Structure formats: C-alpha cells, structure tokens
Amino acid sequence: MARKFKKILVANRGEIAIRIFRACSELGIRSVAIYSEEDNTALFRTKADESYQVGFGKTPLEAYLDMNEIISLAKSKGVDAIHPGYGFLSENKEFARRCEENGITFIGPSYEVLDSLGDKIKSKIVAKKAKVPTIPGVDKPIRTKQDALDFAKEAGYPVMIKAAAGGGGRGMRIVEKEEDLIPAFRNAQSEAKKAFGIDDMFIEKYLKKPKHIEVQILGDKEGNIVHLYERDCSIQRRHQKIIEFTPAFSLPIEVRERICEDALKIANSVKYYNAGTVEFLVDSDLNHYFIEVNPRIQVEHTVSELVTGIDIVQSQILIAEGYRLDSEEIGIESQDSVILNGYSIQCRVTTEDPANNFAPDTGKIDVYRSGSGFGVRLDVGNGYVGSVITPFYDSLLVKMTSKSRTFKDAINKSKRALKELKISGVKTNIPFLVNVLNSEQFQQGTCNTGFIENNPQLFD
Ligand code: ADP
C-alpha cells in the first residue's frame, strides 16, 4: 500500500532543489528548503513552501552535511520524507539509515544498496557477479605500495588510481610509467581523504580515450526495474561532464542494447529501487566496461526525461511512497512502454572561465536575459539578476536542455538559446559551449573523453 507524503524536505540547494520543489508542487506535496547563511538570498529557498536556515556557526558546506541537524529539523516540522538531490548527503548510507530510524522516508535506494553500490570497489564486485564486464583491476583496497606496483606491472601501463568513495573526478590519477606510480598514489589518496573522509584506493587499467555511456534506471519497491535508455557523457574536462546527450546514436544499436541490458542485470542483482545511473566506458573496439553506479538523481537526468516523457523526480517520490512502476500514478507498464522519442542535449552553463583554465568566477550578476522558446528547457539555479555567486558551492548557473526530432536541430536549438542568453557580472563558459556544439565531431556524436584535451581551438 502506498503512503502519501504530505511534506518533503530537500537536503540540497540550487537548481536541483528547485527541480524537486516543482515535482512536490505538481504532486500536491508541501516542500521544505534548508539553506546556509551564505545562501540567504538564493533563489531556491524562495521556491519552497517553507524554508529554514541551518548550519549556524558552521562552514558553508557543513550546513548541508549535518545529518543530526537536518533530521531533527525535519522531525520538528512534520516532514514525511527527505530528498537528498545529488552531491552532499545523497550517497551517504548512514544518512539513509538514520532517516528511516527516525520515521522519515529517504527518497533513494535502500541502505543495503547504498552500501554495496556506493563504493566503487564493492560495486565492481557486484557487476562481476552479475556477469557484466569490468575494467581489469584489483578487487580490494590497496594497502601497500607493492600491491599497486605489482598490479601495474602485470596489467601494463597506463593505469588509473581511483578513490573507492570517488566522485566529481576527485581522487583520480592516470599513471603512465612506474616511477610516477607512488607519488600519484599518495596525491590521489590525500585528495580522497580531504574530499570524502575515506582514503580507500584501488587501481585499474586506464582505457585510452573511451566513450562514457551511462544508463538511467528506475525501479519500484516490488522488484520491477526498467531503463530509460542511455546518455553519452563523453564531453568532459578533468573527468567532469560538460555536455550530455541522448541517445548515443554514434554507437551501433546492438551495442547500446547490450549496455542497457547489462545495466538492468546489475540493478536486478541487488533489487535496486528508486532512480539510479549505471555508468560504463566503451573502448574504440566497442567493448563496454562497467565503472560505477550513481545511486541518486544526476545532473543530466533532464535529457532522459525529454526523450522518454517520464518525470524522473516525480517517479522517485512516487516510488518512495510505495507506488509500483505500472501504477496509474507512475504509468510505466513495462520496458516496452518506455519509448525513446527524438534527441536531447544538455549544456551546463557555468561561471567557469575557459580562457582562465576554467577557474570559477564569482560576483554579482547584473544582467541576465534568458534564452528559451520551443524545444528548450531551462533548470535555473543561480542565473538571475542580483544573484550573488560565491566561491563556496559548484559553479552551475543554469542547465540548458534542448529536444528535437533530429540531433542537428537539437544542436541548432541549443545554439540559438545560448545566443539569447545574456549574462554579465560573472564570466561564463557560453562561448566554449557554442564552440563544442559547432565542431564536426560533436555533430557526428563520435567524441570520446579525450575530445576537449585534444582540441585546443575550442578555447578560442
Ligand atoms: P567520478 O565518480 O569521480 O565521476 P568515474 O569513475 O565516474 O569518477 O569516472 C569519471 C571519468 O573518468 C569517466 O567518465 C572517464 O572519463 C574517466 N575514467 C574513469 N575510469 C577510467 C579508466 N579506467 N580509464 C579511462 N578513463 C577512466
């Protein structure tokens, strides 16, 4: 039996908080925002039905990470469920457990799933058991220098050092030769310790210029799981995504189908529920390898929504309430009823200045003219007149997602809307995004993860 929520607290900020408030509003659920002192004037908090400042006397990041404070606030305000968004507490299994212990539903997968899939080493073991190909690597944390050296010698260079708890491209190093291995390992480990508080590291073979392909999945609490096709997220800088699109049309349909099936195999093997993304790398011979599961909503979920017509965030809430995928509320009768229609591209408009090595700019936005129109969706976080961009949080201003019947027109719509978008007061990456959209390789859909690095003219 489904239990309807009356009130949801969003333990996040910026565009994703607004995205979730909107879904709550559409479902007739009251929304609660939390905000730090630094976010006192931020747009997102005004989009919720109620908002409360948290993190008094704490750093800007700690405000969104204090489980005790967030849970006790939720309890005192009569909240039924917490949506963690992405980043912050979204993959924190302890947070999920403590929410449930306090009678608050965590809108995400179960504690057990977060435990087995939230860690990159453990999730590779899950993938192997499900008979899904993984990148050759060690299957436990590296404890001694010799373990790392032995693996690299056997597998051959280049290798990649990664943090088990990694995210956002942090705690990761490519190592080309033996003498660089130990220093790189130490650097990556201290970066991981700082970023995640956990310094378990592992090592795997480095694939040369693969494509990054990921599959959106959605499962209910009764074991029904579907995929919402794949996204191509190969346009990356320092292992971070900048532009994403769907479908990954440059790959043969059989390869895409195999990848989606493998994503389902992994999800089914752990009885995954709620929304999640299974990520793969695809090499130049079209072999695919599992890399990780992101057990949460992702920044680029918008493209999958536009080509399938499925509201992923509403579905997350309904699943957490206990609805089945084939219920009237969610309306996904079977995999065959998930129909892919057209092409969609998401551009992340950020305050990063490509001319200055993508350093995030800060300041107050004094001009903001929006680009919109047919086929363009905007998810605004910090893009509006008067918005104060601080150095404390990510540099995303607005996500611009286009949709059309052809990839060519989706590009044209993105370019047109980016041209309409006028921002002054902070530097943005808009000219850089337009250069990528104009490149022939992007238009063919064939870019791999080395594309930006290998095309310095994109910075002109
Ligand atoms: P994070 O969780 O920090 O985002 P991921 O494991 O998802 O890290 O990897 C991010 C990106 O790093 C990938 O999309 C890919 O470009 C690159 N990458 C990760 N592992 C490898 C590998 N073994 N070989 C080549 N590139 C890799």
UniProtKB/TrEMBL annotation:
Name of the molecule in the record: Pyruvate carboxylase
Full-sequence portion shown in this chain: 1 to 460 of 1144
